[in-house]
User: What shape does this take?
Amino acid sequence: MHADAAQPAPDAELPDADPWRRFMCVAYEGVILFGVVFFFAYGFSALTRFNGQPGLLRWAFQGFMVLVLGVYFVWSWSNGRRTLPMKTMGVRLVDAHGRPASTRRAIVRYLAAIAGWVAALGLAAGVHAAAILLVAVPFAWALVDRRRRTLYDLASGTRLVFERR
Assistant: This one.
């Protein structure tokens, strides 16, 4: 057995990020993502002359944007990196043992998040507009979970911790 394996990771004892801190990260992330989405959507539209009409190009645009956001979040969440809002709020994504989340865990977390959004948007478009409120369910789970994990965290084996400065 390796000598380091017996000792807990240094981040294992960090407190879980509270729901308010999580909410502030989401709100701030929305501001940042406005710029990211605008830049890449404009570039896609300029290169392909896409103007929002239904068809194959719309599917390509949506897939492109899911890919862009996936690269942004997976890179930002994995291997100890953080988004600017996470840095500002003192939040870090770790695995269940307190180690920085791996790229694999970040991918699973992103795919779980996208699945929730696609399901809510699909139900809102096809069943009833109020179904858009389902996007809040994974976040609301953090209010009842003992470790304050969202459904995305449960799916990926991660948790958000707060680093006191």
User: Anything to note?
Assistant: The chain has one domain: 16-162. The beta strands are 91-95, 158-162. The helical segments are 19-48, 56-77, 84-89, 103-126, 137-144, 151-156. The first helix runs from residue 19 to 48.
